Amino acid sequence: MQPYGEVRDRLAGKPGRWLVTGVAGFIGSHLLEHLLVLGQHVVGLDNFATGYRRNIEDVLSRAGNRGAFRLIEGDIRDPDTCLTACQGVDFVLHQAALGSVPRSVLDPALYHQVNVDGTVNMLIAARDAGVQRFVYASSSAVYGDSPELPKRESVIGEPVSPYGLTKRVGEEYALMFRRVWGFESIGLRYFNVFGRRQEPRSAYAAVIPQWIRKLVLGMPCEIYGDGETTRDFCYIDNVVQANLLAAAGTVRGDDRAFNVGCGERTSLNDLFATIRAGLARTKPALAGAQARHADFRAGDIRHSQADIGRIRAALGYAPTHLLAQGIDETLEWYVEMLSAPDRIAV
Prior knowledge:
Rossmann fold, about 350 residues, 12 helices, alpha/beta
């Protein structure tokens, strides 16, 4: 049996106590869903600044009566809230953060408060509460201007955005807690995550849900730059796998930061064509849709691709969905949701 299957079987046989910060967000809600299906006891922490109550409602309707869930509405910028949330918890999956490179360029102070101060508060709280393992969301943005492809965990360039810098500082704090207090943590450097329940409407929405929504609704799509910018698009189920392996699996070696991607590289032009072709299978009129090009955005990295050798060796991670499979499942969900405005505002 693969390591992920072994971890899921073990958890299903012996429920643990988990804290998921940012539980109402895209990634947090998927972690909650998988944990509840496995019969786990989950505390969720969210201030609903970027998360949505409808995500939690959707999860609870899917999970049925399996597992147990308690929601704390609070902010990771408040140390007392963090300590309260960590009490009696075995594992922390720290997902709460502000994303979006462009938005971080506009408001670096807010990003520091949430992504750096909030992470330090969570590390202190988890350490003081005796948490067994602390897993936190980092980002491929930590690689900055490093030209190396694929990105290896050991080679990092200079930061090119406040967002990327906050994620790097968070990693350094996690390492410091290990060196000084012996507190174990694992950082997961997410590449471009996509999938069901990802918010499509914000001005800072990720490209895949944004394009799906606009194509379905007949709105124009924009590609920043010439479209040859590349990304490693990672389906949400792969991210869930990495988190459960990092928290409850066996870690081989001494590394504590890992890429989470698929090891593929797709241009924005090819991505647009893939989404358009997928939608055209049920909406033939979209086959001829064209995107318009805009200027490159400040802080954007030109090319990104994960080397996933380290996480394979250390955790047994093996992506279950590459871009094609992930896009098919994602399109199916969004087409259904966008045809039912009472389920997701459009």
